[in-house]
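Each field is listed here:
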Amino acid sequence: MAQSRQAKDEQPTRVPSEESGHLGKLATELSGYGVETDVVDADPPYLRVSNPANRYAVEDVTCERREHDYAFIASFGVYLGSSGSLGVTAHKVAWLVGVTEQ
């Protein structure tokens, strides 16, 4: 009986989604900007990007499946770029958190 209770209490292992994978690639692209990044395993997953010089400069980026690729969306609903344009998207996110000029 104790074994069945333990099995009930265990949380199922979550398999990383494709969206999480693309957010991880964006995080890697952002590494050159000196920002802090963290892929948060939520529903939906998101990438939290912060400027270490300004604790208020934080942006949460989500990833949505589109017909031919994945789209990165800012927390306020603005399209930032696609999985096919990681460099451009990273620059926009870095600008949002104030580590680069437009």
Summary: The first strand starts at residue 36 and ends at 40. The chain has a mean pLDDT of 89. The beta strands are 36-40, 46-51, 54-65, 70-73, 79-82. The radius of gyration is 16 Å.
